[in-house]
Specification:
Blueprint lengths: L15 E9 L7 E4 L11 E6 L2 E14 L10 E3 L6 H13 L4 H8 L12 E5 L9 H9 L6 H8 L3 H9 L3 E5 L19 H16 L3 E7 L5 H15 L4 E5 L7 H11 L4 E3 L5 H13 L4 E4 L11 E7 L7 E2 L5 E2 H12 L2 E6 L4 H8 L4 E5 L10 E6 L18 H12 L3 E5 L8 E4 L16 E3 L4 E3 L6 E3 L13 E4 L3 H11 L5 E4 L7 H12 L5 E4 L12 E6 L13 H13 L10 E6 L5 H8 L2 H15 L5 E10 L2 H13 L7 E14 L2 E11 L4 H10 L8 E6 L5
Parallel strand pairs: 8-15, 8-16, 9-11, 9-12, 10-11, 12-15, 17-27, 18-25, 18-26, 24-25, 26-27
Antiparallel strand pairs: 1-2, 1-4, 3-4, 3-5, 6-7, 13-14, 19-23, 20-21, 21-22, 28-30, 28-31, 29-30
The chain binds adenosine-5'-diphosphate.
Keywords: ATP-binding, DNA replication, DNA-binding, Helicase, Hydrolase, Isomerase, Metal-binding, Nucleotide-binding, Primosome, Zinc
Protein name: Replication restart protein PriA
Family: Belongs to the helicase family. PriA subfamily.
Length: about 725
């Protein structure tokens, strides 16, 4: 307001004015200055409409200052929008993240306030009984009055009673019913004391350490490192409870990989806190998103359980973050704005000085290194809760035990030792999980006549055969087509051959080898929604199925008490990727998948089929010697000065115009600043060099830890004018390259 203006700033020739810096929701590189009209009270975090070029766009106020007017006339804010303001700490974090990810502020904020684009829900009106008696009681009126015991809207009530709305209106006119406003959405209030668990001694020790650290206060990153089933969840839920009870305004965020956000997890939280936690994931409706956004901004929502983007909700007073399965690759967003939610969560806790708990049975190399160096508090849980045992792990050398072929000459995929073990397990009336992280029947379809590999149109990734639906599907672009009878390239009839196995093909082999066993697939194709995956999990728990052939959809979180054998069909699969984290991801995924075997009182066994049993990943899995794997992996990364011993970034350029893309990328290569401790590789074709008709090239940037990577990138990318037909995105800490 004008009274805040510092008089020393005033220039007597020019009037003073109030200027708002606004992050406009448009791809402009900076926050923009706008004049605040007289009489408009604006604060940081307010939503406004501002003029931009010839349009009006939405924006968020990043700062308001009194400034001396200049001869250059600023455009004025058009209007203030009546939406809950973004709390300051959240806004400042978002603006910091725009700089970190090298994203224009408006583009970044667009993701953070996207929920507000849905119009506010109208306050619901309900019809209630006043207690007055109607002059005449018809059968229709009677039905209305029976239904009106719960508050329903006009439409709902007329449907429930099976009468026309005029019957209800008539009752209103007579004063028998009244229209009332129903209160806005109320979120469940978690009760920290609702059901406290009896912790076992190692859990209690971990909890005590967390209590002490939290009592000291301030930024405190913790790696909660414990084998699967050791009870990490119970431990971090106690910290959640403590945070909620010591400050009635504190908010807590539990981040989970999207795939782990199941009914089972929600039910577990409800059992602990007596109220439904507020979820945040991709399946919410737009109006649910808006309500939750508002509830988080007002502080009414105390406990959020969400996937990575929940980090960017507008918390009023965030005081604890838990990142469960912190090593999980799905915390890295690889499309649109690219960010690593776990890493940014640590920054959030650091900025606002609170505790963050990173939980995993197989921590990321980054977090483990931080724990080893003492940057993170390191809490270890080394035993499974109760009497549960770790599984016995064996390697099957596929060079020694090739699975052979069927009588028809089709390849088989299960080796004799694995088949024998499946037989024994079924004979004991126990269950089997066969793990292969590949959806569909075959990852590649190839023409035997001409050698053509089937790909999606204008895309260089292979089409995956899905026999259940008779279609060829591109998992990257979503393209799909009916499997043709003839090769589209050479026209040969019935020449298309399925190469390699997917889960459907393994199921086919399982059914022919074990016709008496009940077998089914557990993948995102067979469990497209929560209801179907809950139903499948229940079938496994009730032992209505004997053999599960599963992708990573089943690798996480479920406790199947009677499942005692895990067979890894192709343990080498993930190692072939060739990127920085291939070995780490393979180790984590297989450690987790083998951890599914044996819970409670039954010992489990895991068999890994591999062509390279001597590989350090396989040896470490077999010996259950995690430290050996991490030591090997750390050494490899340290030699290459790759993360966490260096920093990485990628620049991905794409265009429909291949010639222009090549020209632009060469031009960019010529302007790479010569900086000590920073190397730029490329331009090279991106791993997927053609997607939906867009050609893709990229640079990879490696910098020493102490270099300002973002500063280097910004300075470099500023040097060349980018033609509009080229799209350029930067990826700090890329995961797939
Ligand atoms: P993690 O998160 O480490 O994999 P969980 O917290 O899911 O382990 O615990 C594994 C199983 O042990 C769960 O079924 C859980 O309910 C049970 N459990 C863990 N701690 C306790 C405890 N103190 N008392 C009773 N059951 C527990």
């Amino acid at each position: 307001s004008p009274s805040d203006i510092n008089p020393t700033l005033l220039d007597f020739d020019l009037p003073s004015q109030v200027v708002a810096k606004v992050a406009v929701l448009a791809p402009v590189a900076e926050v923009l200055d706008y004049a605040v009209p007289d009489g408009m009270a604006l604060e940081v975090g307010d939503h406004v409409m501002v003029p931009l070029a010839h349009h009006k766009v939405r924006g968020v106020v990043a700062s308001v200052e009194a400034a001396q007017a200049t001869h250059f006339k600023l455009k004025a804010v058009v209007a203030k929008i009546d939406d809950p303001p973004v709390p300051r700490a959240s806004l400042e974090f978002w603006l910091w993240a725009t700089g970190w990810t090298l994203t224009p502020p408006g583009v970044f904020l667009n993701g953070c306030i996207g929920a507000l684009k849905t119009p506010k829900a109208q306050a619901k009106q309900a019809y209630v009984l006043t207690g007055a008696q109607p002059a005449k009681l018809t059968r229709a009126r009677e039905r209305v009055m029976e239904q009106a015991v719960v508050s329903l809207s006009l439409t709902e009530l007329s449907q429930a009673a099976g009468v026309s709305p005029s019957v209800i209106k008539g009752l209103e006119t007579e004063g028998v019913m009244a229209r009332v406003e129903v209160a806005a959405e109320v979120f469940g209030v978690p009760d920290p004391q609702f059901k406290t668990p009896a912790l076992n001694p190692s859990q209690a020790a971990a909890d005590e350490l967390l209590r002490q650290k939290q009592a000291v206060g301030g930024f405190c990153p913790v790696l909660l490192d414990g084998v699967t089933g050791s009870g990490k969840t119970e431990v971090y839920l106690e910290s959640v409870a403590r945070t909620l009870s010591r400050d009635p305004k504190a908010q807590v965020l539990i981040l989970l990989p999207e795939i782990a956000l199941t009914q089972a997890v929600m039910a577990r939280l409800k059992a602990r806190f007596g109220a439904d936690p507020v979820p945040w994931h991709s399946a919410l409706t737009p109006s649910q998103r808006r309500k939750i956004w508002e509830g988080v901004a007002s502080g009414e929502v105390r406990l959020v359980v969400g996937a990575r983007s929940a980090l960017f909700l507008p918390y009023l007073k965030l005081d604890l973050i838990v990142v469960d399965e912190e090593h999980d690759g799905s915390y890295k967003q690889e499309e649109g704005v690219r960010y690593q939610a776990r890493d940014l969560a640590v920054v959030r806790a650091h900025r606002d000085k609170f505790m963050i708990i990173l939980a995993s049975a197989t921590p990321s190399l980054e977090s483990l290194s931080n724990a080893q160096k003492g940057r993170y508090e390191w809490i270890r849980l080394t035993e499974r809760h109760g009497t549960a045992q770790l599984p016995d792990i064996h390697l099957i050398d596929m060079k020694v035990h090739p699975p052979g072929k069927t009588e028809m000459g089709d390849p088989l995929w299960l080796s004799a030792p694995l088949v024998a073990e499946i037989e024994h397990t079924l004979a004991r009336k126990e269950q089997v999980l066969l793990f292969l992280n590949r959806r569909g029947y075959a990852p590649l379809v190839l023409c035997r006549a001409c050698g053509e590999r089937m790909t999606a149109p204008n895309t260089d990734s292979w089409l995956v055969e899905h026999r259940a639906t008779g279609r060829l599907v591109c998992h990257l672009t979503g393209f799909s087509m009916k499997k043709p009878d003839r090769c589209p390239h050479c026209g040969a009839l019935d020449s298309l051959a399925a190469i390699g196995p997917g889960v459907e093909r393994i199921l086919e082999e399982v059914r022919s080898r074990f016709p008496a066993a009940r077998a089914e697939i557990f993948s995102s194709d067979t469990t497209p929604d929560a209801a179907s995956s809950e139903a499948l999990i229940k079938r496994v728990q009730d032992h209505d199925t004997d053999i599960l052939v599963a992708t990573q959809a089943a690798a996480k979180g479920h406790n199947f008490l009677n499942l005692t054998l895990v067979g890894i069909v192709d343990a080498d699969l993930g190692l072939k990727g060739g990127d920085l984290r291939a070995a780490e991801r393979t180790f984590q995924l297989l450690a987790q998948a083998t951890g599914r075997a044996g819970r409670a009182h039954k010992a489990g066994k895991a068999l890994l089929q591999t062509y390279s049993p001597e590989h350090p990943v396989m040896q470490a899995l077999k010996a259950q010697d995690r430290e050996a794997f991490y030591a090997y992996e750390q050494m490899t990364r340290e030699l290459a000065k790759f993360p966490p011993f260096g920093r990485l970034a990628a620049v991905i350029m794409s265009s429909k115009d291949q010639a222009e893309l090549n020209r632009f990328s060469r031009e960019l290569a010529l302007t790479i600043p010569n900086t000590d401790g920073v190397e730029v590789y490329g331009p090279a074709d991106a791993p997927l060099s053609l997607v939906r008709g867009q050609w893709r090239k990229r640079f990879l940037v490696r910098a020493d830890r102490n270099r300002d990577l973002q500063g280097f990138m910004a300075a470099w990318l500023r040097t060349v004018k980018k033609p509009n037909i080229i799209r350029l995105v930067t990826d700090i800490d890329p995961y797939s390259f």
